[in-house]
From TrEMBL:
Keywords: Membrane, Repeat, Transmembrane, Transmembrane helix. It is found in: Membrane. This is Solute carrier family 35 member G3-like. InterPro entries: EamA_dom, EmrE-like. It is a multi-pass membrane protein. Residues 16-26 have a biased composition (Pro residues). It comes from the Eukaryota. Its main location: membrane. The gene is LOC102830088. PANTHER family: ACYL-MALONYL CONDENSING ENZYME-RELATED, SOLUTE CARRIER FAMILY 35 MEMBER G5-RELATED.
């Protein structure tokens, strides 16, 4: 009687039980992550975290060899040019279809302006504060632009997370704005914050333009155009506005290579995420860049991190958790039958 007890008719626990297999659910009841969930996760892991290293590495390159911001932008654009090989192999036009070529070029110009302003700001403002102002302005502008131009609203939880994230950024950067020094140093610092704000505004406009592009190979096309437009605009500006510098130490070259690779990964992930989720939510999740930049600012650059920075970073992380939890949902797979 190997399967039951002889008196109480109970199962014999000394015998191994067969593995339990969950019943196969019909296709209509299976769940998969929603588009918004996938977009926000890609923005968090592939966009915000790598971008958090870009600002501190840029500052390290400037401190090591006084590398100008436009030269750093040129080096970053060089990493985008090999994407032309992918477009050629696929037989796609390098500049995109003729009917959307103007908007694609506008997207590239806005992104170049945004990155140029960010690299200029990080040379006179702490990396964490520059990233804070840039991401905060991009989030607010994205929410307003999407609401006004696309009539795309947000839920109550999304607005709560969005406002909380913006509040965290104000906590981080507010004390620094209230203690600006007088004279040339204070003027340069104020200009750094203005450039960071303009960089965020250009970023939000670029994301909005990208959402209007719908054609095959859209992502590699705009990535290549960013590199091309950046080179065309930065090379003349470098010789007119700044003085080229040839780094001669391994640290500067390592920082330049890391900036190029991480920035390319972040660019691709953010461009993908903004097609899946609301641009304001994507920008809010990208505030994780600020937390990473503050950590590197303290542990790597040995720059002071005030208690308000830590408090603001906590508020930002809590707001990101609210936004992510609100949008973590699954959609039932429904098998569409062709009629």
């Amino acid at each position: 009687m190997a399967g039951s007890h002889p008196y109480f008719n109970l199962p014999d626990f000394t015998q191994p039980s067969p593995p339990s297999t969950p019943p196969n659910l019909p296709p209509s009841q299976r769940c998969r992550p929603s588009d918004a969930t996938k977009g926000l996760l890609v923005a968090l892991l592939g966009g915000g975290l790598p971008a958090g290293f870009v600002g501190p590495f840029s500052r390290m390159a400037y401190q090591a060899s006084h590398l100008p911001s436009l030269e750093l932008l040129i080096c970053r654009c060089l990493f985008h040019l090999p994407i032309a090989l992918l477009l050629k192999l696929r037989g796609d036009p390098l500049l995109g279809p003729s009917d959307v070529r103007g908007r694609a070029c506008l997207h590239a110009i806005l992104n170049v302006l945004s990155i140029g302003c960010a690299y200029s700001a990080v040379q006179v403002v702490p990396a964490g504060n520059a990233a804070t102002v840039r991401k905060g302005s991009s989030t607010v502008c994205s929410a307003l632009l999407a609401l006004c131009l696309e009539s795309q609203g947000l839920s109550g939880y999304d607005w709560c997370g969005l406002l909380g994230s913006t509040l965290g950024l104000i906590i981080i950067v507010g004390p620094g704005l209230g203690t600006l020094q007088e004279g040339t140093t204070g003027l340069y610092t104020a200009m750094g914050y203005v450039l960071a704000f303009l960089g965020g505004l250009a970023l939000s406009l670029g994301l909005l333009v990208y959402r209007s592009l719908h054609f095959p190979s859209c992502l590699p096309t705009v990535a290549f155009l960013f590199g091309l437009v950046g080179l065309v605009g930065s090379v003349p500006g470098l010789f007119v506005l700044q003085t080229p510098v040839l780094p001669n130490d391994p640290l500067s070259w390592s920082c330049v290579g890391a900036v190029g690779i991480l920035a390319l990964v972040s660019f691709v992930c953010v461009s993908y995420a903004v097609t899946k989720a609301h641009p304001a939510l994507v920008c809010a999740v990208l505030h994780s860049e600020v937390v990473v930049a503050l950590m590197l600012q303290y542990y790597v650059l040995y720059e002071t991190v005030a208690p308000s920075d830590i408090m603001g970073a906590g508020v930002v992380l809590g707001s990101i958790a609210i936004i992510t939890a609100q949008n973590l949902s699954c959609e039932k797979e429904e098998k569409k039958e062709e009629e």
